Amino acid sequence: MYRYVGNISDLSHYIIKNFVENKSIAIDGTLGNGYDTDFLSSLFSKVYSFDIQEEACNNYINKNIENVEVINDSHHFFKKYINDKVDCIMYNLGFLPGGDKTITTLHETSLESIKEGLDVLNSGGIMTICIYRGHNEGKIEETCILEYLKNLPKNQFGVMVQSYLNRHNNSPLLVVVEKKQN
Ligand SMILES: C[S@@+](CC[C@H](N)C(=O)[O-])C[C@H]1O[C@@H](n2cnc3c(N)ncnc32)[C@H](O)[C@@H]1O
Questions:
Q1: Containing domain of residue 54, as a range?
Q2: Which residues sit with their C-beta closer than 6 Å to ligand 1?
Q3: How far is the CA of 158 from the centre of ligand 1 (A)?
Q4: For 12-71, how does the pLDDT look when each residue is reduced to its tens digit (9 = 90+)?
Q5: Strand runs (DSSP E) across the chain, as ranges?
Q6: Of 10, 50, 98, 177, which is least surrounded by CB within 10 A?
Q7: In a domain, 32, yes or no
Protein backbone atom coordinates (compact mmCIF):
# COMPACT_ATOMS: atom_id res chain seq x y z
CA MET A 1 0.00 0.00 0.00
CA TYR A 2 1.18 3.51 -0.83
CA ARG A 3 0.58 6.44 1.49
CA TYR A 4 1.28 9.23 -1.02
CA VAL A 5 1.33 7.90 -4.60
CA GLY A 6 -1.63 5.52 -4.28
CA ASN A 7 -4.45 7.46 -5.85
CA ILE A 8 -4.85 10.98 -7.25
CA SER A 9 -8.30 11.46 -5.73
CA ASP A 10 -6.98 10.92 -2.21
CA LEU A 11 -4.09 13.21 -3.00
CA SER A 12 -6.48 15.95 -4.14
CA HIS A 13 -8.36 15.58 -0.83
CA TYR A 14 -5.13 15.88 1.13
CA ILE A 15 -4.16 19.05 -0.74
CA ILE A 16 -7.55 20.67 -0.26
CA LYS A 17 -7.75 19.75 3.42
CA ASN A 18 -4.31 21.10 4.19
CA PHE A 19 -3.91 24.09 1.89
CA VAL A 20 -7.34 25.72 1.53
CA GLU A 21 -7.52 28.00 4.55
CA ASN A 22 -10.99 29.46 4.23
CA LYS A 23 -13.48 26.62 4.06
CA SER A 24 -16.77 28.40 3.32
CA ILE A 25 -17.97 27.40 -0.15
CA ALA A 26 -16.88 24.56 -2.45
CA ILE A 27 -18.04 23.25 -5.81
CA ASP A 28 -17.88 19.63 -6.91
CA GLY A 29 -18.04 19.94 -10.71
CA THR A 30 -18.59 16.19 -11.18
CA LEU A 31 -20.74 14.62 -8.46
CA GLY A 32 -20.83 11.01 -9.77
CA ASN A 33 -20.99 8.57 -6.87
CA GLY A 34 -20.53 11.41 -4.42
CA TYR A 35 -17.21 10.52 -2.79
CA ASP A 36 -15.72 13.94 -3.46
CA THR A 37 -18.92 15.67 -2.39
CA ASP A 38 -18.92 13.69 0.87
CA PHE A 39 -15.36 14.81 1.44
CA LEU A 40 -16.14 18.46 0.66
CA SER A 41 -19.28 18.47 2.82
CA SER A 42 -17.24 17.31 5.81
CA LEU A 43 -14.96 20.35 5.50
CA PHE A 44 -16.87 23.23 3.91
CA SER A 45 -19.91 25.10 5.19
CA LYS A 46 -21.67 24.86 1.82
CA VAL A 47 -21.13 22.62 -1.21
CA TYR A 48 -22.66 22.87 -4.68
CA SER A 49 -22.45 19.63 -6.68
CA PHE A 50 -23.13 19.29 -10.38
CA ASP A 51 -23.85 16.29 -12.56
CA ILE A 52 -25.66 15.87 -15.86
CA GLN A 53 -26.90 12.40 -14.81
CA GLU A 54 -30.23 12.61 -13.03
CA GLU A 55 -29.69 9.27 -11.33
CA ALA A 56 -26.41 10.37 -9.77
CA CYS A 57 -28.11 13.55 -8.54
CA ASN A 58 -31.13 11.74 -7.09
CA ASN A 59 -28.91 9.20 -5.33
CA TYR A 60 -27.13 12.01 -3.57
CA ILE A 61 -30.25 14.04 -2.84
CA ASN A 62 -31.68 10.98 -1.09
CA LYS A 63 -28.81 11.09 1.37
CA ASN A 64 -30.23 14.36 2.74
CA ILE A 65 -26.93 16.00 3.49
CA GLU A 66 -27.83 19.41 4.85
CA ASN A 67 -24.96 21.53 3.53
CA VAL A 68 -24.98 20.09 -0.03
CA GLU A 69 -27.02 21.51 -2.89
CA VAL A 70 -27.17 19.08 -5.82
CA ILE A 71 -27.67 20.59 -9.27
CA ASN A 72 -28.66 18.40 -12.21
CA ASP A 73 -26.97 20.49 -14.88
CA SER A 74 -23.65 20.82 -16.63
CA HIS A 75 -20.80 22.37 -14.67
CA HIS A 76 -20.22 25.00 -17.36
CA PHE A 77 -23.52 26.61 -16.29
CA PHE A 78 -22.55 26.99 -12.66
CA LYS A 79 -22.72 30.81 -12.69
CA LYS A 80 -26.46 30.40 -13.25
CA TYR A 81 -26.73 28.87 -9.78
CA ILE A 82 -23.93 30.40 -7.71
CA ASN A 83 -23.46 34.12 -7.20
CA ASP A 84 -20.76 33.95 -4.53
CA LYS A 85 -17.01 33.55 -4.78
CA VAL A 86 -15.86 30.06 -3.79
CA ASP A 87 -12.86 28.62 -1.97
CA CYS A 88 -12.45 25.30 -3.72
CA ILE A 89 -13.51 23.60 -6.96
CA MET A 90 -12.99 19.90 -7.70
CA TYR A 91 -13.28 18.06 -11.00
CA ASN A 92 -12.96 14.34 -11.43
CA LEU A 93 -13.35 14.27 -15.20
CA GLY A 94 -14.35 11.37 -17.43
CA PHE A 95 -17.15 8.86 -16.94
CA LEU A 96 -18.62 7.28 -13.86
CA PRO A 97 -16.72 4.11 -12.91
CA GLY A 98 -19.18 1.22 -13.24
CA GLY A 99 -21.63 3.48 -15.11
CA ASP A 100 -22.37 4.40 -18.72
CA LYS A 101 -19.01 5.12 -20.35
CA THR A 102 -20.66 7.13 -23.13
CA ILE A 103 -21.68 9.80 -20.60
CA THR A 104 -18.39 11.55 -20.15
CA THR A 105 -17.14 15.05 -19.57
CA LEU A 106 -16.26 16.84 -22.83
CA HIS A 107 -13.28 19.08 -23.43
CA GLU A 108 -15.22 22.16 -24.58
CA THR A 109 -17.54 22.26 -21.57
CA SER A 110 -14.84 21.14 -19.11
CA LEU A 111 -12.60 23.97 -20.28
CA GLU A 112 -15.41 26.50 -20.20
CA SER A 113 -16.25 25.48 -16.64
CA ILE A 114 -12.60 25.64 -15.57
CA LYS A 115 -12.26 29.16 -17.01
CA GLU A 116 -15.38 30.33 -15.16
CA GLY A 117 -14.19 28.53 -12.04
CA LEU A 118 -10.88 30.34 -12.00
CA ASP A 119 -12.78 33.59 -12.26
CA VAL A 120 -14.98 32.91 -9.21
CA LEU A 121 -12.25 31.29 -7.11
CA ASN A 122 -11.30 33.34 -4.06
CA SER A 123 -7.69 34.38 -3.49
CA GLY A 124 -6.07 31.51 -1.64
CA GLY A 125 -8.57 29.11 -3.18
CA ILE A 126 -7.65 25.85 -4.90
CA MET A 127 -9.02 24.01 -7.93
CA THR A 128 -8.14 20.34 -8.43
CA ILE A 129 -8.68 18.54 -11.73
CA CYS A 130 -8.26 14.77 -12.10
CA ILE A 131 -7.83 13.93 -15.78
CA TYR A 132 -8.21 10.34 -16.99
CA ARG A 133 -6.30 9.82 -20.23
CA GLY A 134 -7.27 6.20 -20.86
CA HIS A 135 -10.10 7.12 -23.27
CA ASN A 136 -10.14 9.36 -26.34
CA GLU A 137 -12.05 12.28 -24.89
CA GLY A 138 -9.80 12.21 -21.82
CA LYS A 139 -6.74 12.62 -24.04
CA ILE A 140 -8.32 15.63 -25.73
CA GLU A 141 -9.21 17.09 -22.32
CA GLU A 142 -5.62 16.64 -21.22
CA THR A 143 -4.27 18.51 -24.24
CA CYS A 144 -6.61 21.46 -24.18
CA ILE A 145 -6.81 21.90 -20.40
CA LEU A 146 -3.02 21.80 -19.94
CA GLU A 147 -2.51 24.12 -22.90
CA TYR A 148 -4.86 26.64 -21.33
CA LEU A 149 -3.51 26.37 -17.79
CA LYS A 150 0.13 26.62 -18.73
CA ASN A 151 -0.49 30.12 -20.06
CA LEU A 152 -2.12 31.48 -16.91
CA PRO A 153 -0.26 34.50 -15.49
CA LYS A 154 2.13 33.27 -12.82
CA ASN A 155 1.63 36.35 -10.65
CA GLN A 156 -2.02 35.31 -10.23
CA PHE A 157 -2.05 31.51 -10.37
CA GLY A 158 0.26 28.65 -9.47
CA VAL A 159 -0.33 25.49 -11.49
CA MET A 160 1.17 22.07 -10.77
CA VAL A 161 0.71 18.73 -12.49
CA GLN A 162 1.34 15.41 -10.78
CA SER A 163 1.68 12.31 -12.91
CA TYR A 164 3.03 8.79 -12.50
CA LEU A 165 6.42 8.45 -14.16
CA ASN A 166 6.68 4.67 -13.89
CA ARG A 167 3.15 3.71 -14.98
CA HIS A 168 1.67 3.47 -18.46
CA ASN A 169 1.40 6.69 -20.51
CA ASN A 170 -2.34 6.86 -19.98
CA SER A 171 -2.25 6.89 -16.19
CA PRO A 172 -4.30 9.68 -14.61
CA LEU A 173 -3.05 13.19 -13.92
CA LEU A 174 -3.77 15.49 -11.02
CA VAL A 175 -3.70 19.19 -11.82
CA VAL A 176 -3.76 21.70 -8.96
CA VAL A 177 -4.37 25.41 -9.49
CA GLU A 178 -3.96 27.82 -6.59
CA LYS A 179 -5.11 31.43 -6.86
CA LYS A 180 -2.52 33.67 -5.27
CA GLN A 181 -3.44 35.44 -2.06
CA ASN A 182 -3.54 39.24 -2.29
C1 LIG B 1 -15.36 10.36 -12.86
S2 LIG B 1 -17.05 10.66 -12.50
C3 LIG B 1 -16.99 11.62 -11.02
C4 LIG B 1 -16.66 10.85 -9.78
C5 LIG B 1 -17.12 11.57 -8.53
N6 LIG B 1 -16.42 12.78 -8.27
C7 LIG B 1 -17.14 10.68 -7.31
O8 LIG B 1 -16.64 11.10 -6.26
O9 LIG B 1 -17.69 9.59 -7.41
C10 LIG B 1 -17.50 11.89 -13.70
C11 LIG B 1 -18.94 12.39 -13.56
O12 LIG B 1 -19.06 13.59 -14.34
C13 LIG B 1 -20.37 13.65 -14.83
N14 LIG B 1 -20.41 14.61 -15.93
C15 LIG B 1 -20.15 14.42 -17.23
N16 LIG B 1 -20.26 15.58 -17.92
C17 LIG B 1 -20.62 16.52 -17.01
C18 LIG B 1 -20.90 17.92 -17.09
N19 LIG B 1 -20.82 18.58 -18.26
N20 LIG B 1 -21.25 18.58 -15.97
C21 LIG B 1 -21.34 17.94 -14.78
N22 LIG B 1 -21.07 16.60 -14.63
C23 LIG B 1 -20.72 15.92 -15.74
C24 LIG B 1 -20.66 12.23 -15.22
O25 LIG B 1 -22.06 12.04 -15.31
C26 LIG B 1 -20.01 11.44 -14.08
O27 LIG B 1 -20.92 11.16 -13.07
A1: 8-179
A2: 30, 32-36, 50-53, 56, 74-75, 92, 94-96, 103-105, 109
A3: 25
A4: 999 999 999 999 999 999 999 999 999 999 999 999 999 999 999 999 999 999 999 999
A5: 25-28, 46-50, 68-71, 86-92, 121-131, 157-163, 173-179
A6: 98
A7: yes
